[in-house]
Every structure is written in C-alpha cells, then in structure tokens.
Amino acid sequence: MTSRDRRLAAQDLRTRIAARADRGSGGEALEIIRREPVSVLITDLVMPGMSGIDLLRASRSLSPETETVLMTAYGTVENAVEAMKQGAYDFVTKRSSAPRSCAS
C-alpha cells in the first residue's frame, strides 16, 4: 500500500466515523448494523432506551465479527467484567473534565 493509498483509506475511515457519530440510541445503532457491515462499534454504557451492555449483546447476535468498545463515566469493575464476558473488545473509562484538587 502506498502512502497515498494509506491517506485515502484514513480519510475514508474518518468520513465513515463522522457519518456514524452521535446516533443517539442503541436501537438506531442496531438498525445500521442490520443494514451494513460495521467493523467497530463504540458506544456509551449509559444511553436512552438501552444500555451499552444490551447493545453489545444485540450487536454480537447480529454481527459477531463487529468489535465493540464500551466507554463510560460510570466505570466499575463489575461493569467492565460484564462487558468483557459479553465479548467487548475493550472497556474505557472516560476522564472527568472537572478539575481535581489535592489537599496538602
């Protein structure tokens, strides 16, 4: 693959990601998975209508080859273990944007 080919592939991937960003609900994500191949699904754990774990289960039954990454600001060991048991590729905890202070 030439460097031009890599640049075009990267641009295509960025376009596909941007086109899929912020779909709003797990149900909408499942509709996309039903219509077309999806290589990677990145989802939040907490969403309206269905949890990220529920979306992971449903997407695995529709498309076992789709890798799923769950992200959350509500990370617990239990959530991470459940996600991995259900077949998640990874479980990522979002960083808090609030500044933290240390008392000395």
Structure commentary:
The protein has 104 residues and is of the alpha/beta class. The chain has a domain at 39-94: Response regulator (Rossmann fold, 3-Layer(aba) Sandwich), CATH 3.40.50. It is built from four helices and three strands; from the N terminus they run ααβαβαβ. It has a three-stranded parallel beta sheet with strand order 1-2-3, covered by helices on one side. Helix 2 packs parallel to helix 3 (52-62). The longest helix has 18 residues, at 3-20. The protein is globular and about 45 Å long. The model has no long low-confidence stretch (mean pLDDT 80).
CATH topology of the domain at 39-94: Rossmann fold
CATH homologous superfamily grouping of the domain at 39-94: Response regulator
Relative strand content: 5-15%
Distance between the termini: 55 Å
Number of helical elements: 4
Largest sheet: 3 strands, parallel
Radius of gyration: 16 Å
Overall mean pLDDT stands at 80
Specify the structural class: alpha/beta
Q: Which strand order spans the largest sheet, edge to edge or round the barrel?
A: 1-2-3
Give the number of DSSP strands.
3
Short description:
This protein is an alpha/beta fold and 104 residues long. Helix content is 46%, strand content 14%. It has helices at residues 3-20, 26-35, 52-62, 77-85; strands spanning 40-44, 67-72, 90-93.
